[in-house]
Design brief:
Number of strands of chain A: 8
Helix content of chain A: 40-55%
CATH class of the largest domain in chain A: Alpha Beta
Number of domains of chain A: 2
Oligomer: homodimer
Strand content of chain A: 5-15%
Largest interface: A-B, 72 and 72 residues
CATH topology of the largest domain in chain A: Rossmann fold
CATH architecture of the largest domain in chain A: 3-Layer(aba) Sandwich
Mean pLDDT of chain A: 93
Order of helices and strands of chain A: EHEHEHEHHEHEHEHHEH
Largest sheet of chain A: 4 strands, parallel
């Protein structure tokens, strides 16, 4: 088992995410991962190095160290002869400096959207919006929506809406296609005026059956036959009304969210 | 204005995030940004290049192209003589191959946690949990919580809980410290058995006043004096009961979430 450290002067979210994407290329190897955020002083770097050194001493295997640290004095401390060192800033900043014709400011960035207060409130607003307009509890704010997700119960509408709101500041409402909607084979009235904002989610029958069984075992709701007919009716509505839709079965929340944005041309709001 | 393209064979989330972190080092430059996700065929690469070329023709300025594309045939298409090209995979994969002693699989990764179904359900479970245990509506599931956030109304508890659930699969409940709790200067009874899981959020008075005024202008709730006394009482409880706490005023949701995880030693669940 090889130890991997993700070290950042900020949250480490980007460092971890790119580091993990690189490690998936070596799927058969067993990695032990550790994120070390907020390493923004020489003292904290020394503490982190002590930990890394401990692992190396115990395991006898060179750890991999992914870093993204702006300050060269702090960053350079991690260039240890017993680690495989990769820095996500150092590798690109010089070429960018040359391209842009300007020196990097070396200020620790605020890349997660706190720098601009207006943008911050947009984000909080979108989260509030998605919470208050979840699960079709009300349709009176649909005018405000950037997107309205439709689909059967447990297809993945709520997690997708929350993800869109939190990570992109998009006001995402959702409306469950329930038994009565599906029986009438018609787009619910509340949705008709908002046709251009609708996006459908669908799912494989076996997966929906599994998810619903997990939630409410031995119910009409979870039966294969119910799942089959609900999915067919929902997809039929989406097709008849020409609503773009996506199967969520083998997709992560991230992939669903980005595919929706691409499909109906939505962009980050902060 | 310089055009910047973030091109990925998957969602582009990591590519955009690292690219933006690099660009914050050149704060005075005005960039026009565009994310191009799911560029996973030669045909889609050609379409993307047409768009990039169009921008270059109109603007006469070399665009910056950040990519993270596994397939070399697709990736190499973007090495155009009229762009500043930076690839986040190519720069690190060779060194990792040497370090690990294995060739990269070149399979498009599933780094957002869909690969393992068990992990996927953990994530959905955590989102459900945080939704159902928001705003102190019930305390009967606190046993299940990984963390319980406390603080005055509008300090940032709900967005933080949702972020922890969605991005880390952490079951995060929250409990608002309301007038009655604050008046009695005691930790609410429902929280006492869960002391080890508590984390407090606090905020600057002027910021809370601004946020509450935005929400409910001209109310007792939004008054500076109310904000001042509520924050003082809440911080007093956190101090007396030795509950770790953090000021959310100048922090992004990401920073708050990661700082909480670091403080009470929580780790990613998926």
């Amino acid at each position: 088992m090889k130890s991997v450290f993700f070290i950042s002067d900020r949250t480490g979210i980007t460092t971890e995410s790119l580091g993990n994407a690189l490690l998936t290329q070596f799927g058969s190897v067993d990695f032990r991962r550790e994120v070390m955020p907020f390493v923004d002083t020489v003292h904290k770097a020394d503490q982190a190095i002590m930990k890394i050194n401990n692992h190396y001493m115990h395991e006898g295997i060179r750890p991999i160290v992914f870093t993204s640290i702006i300050n060269p004095e702090i960053r350079n401390k991690f260039k240890l002869n017993y680690v495989c060192y990769m820095d996500f800033f150092e590798s690109f900043i010089p070429a960018l400096e040359e391209e842009i014709g300007q020196q990097a400011s070396l200020a620790i960035g605020q890349s997660h959207g706190i720098s601009d207060e207006g943008k911050y409130y947009k984000r909080i607003d979108a989260i509030d919006y998605s919470l208050y307009n979840d699960d079709g509890v009300t349709s009176k704010n649909f005018d405000e929506a950037d997107v309205i997700l439709i689909g059967v119960s447990r297809v993945g509408k709520t997690p997708t809406c929350l993800y869109l709101a939190i990570n992109y500041g998009i006001k995402a409402a959702n409306y469950p296609l329930a038994e009565t909607d599906l029986k009438h084979d018609k787009l619910p009235k509340a949705l008709v005026p908002h046709h251009g904002k609708l996006f459908g989610l669908t799912i494989d029958v076996d997966r929906l059956h599994f998810i619903r069984t997990n939630r409410l075992p031995n119910t009409e709701y979870a039966k294969i036959s119910t799942c089959t007919s609900e999915i067919a009716a929902a997809e039929h509505i989406m097709q008849v009304y020409d609503i773009p839709y996506l199967n969520t079965s083998r997709r992560s929340i991230e992939e669903i969210a980005v595919a929706i944005m691409q499909s109906i041309n939505l962009h980050r709001k902060f």
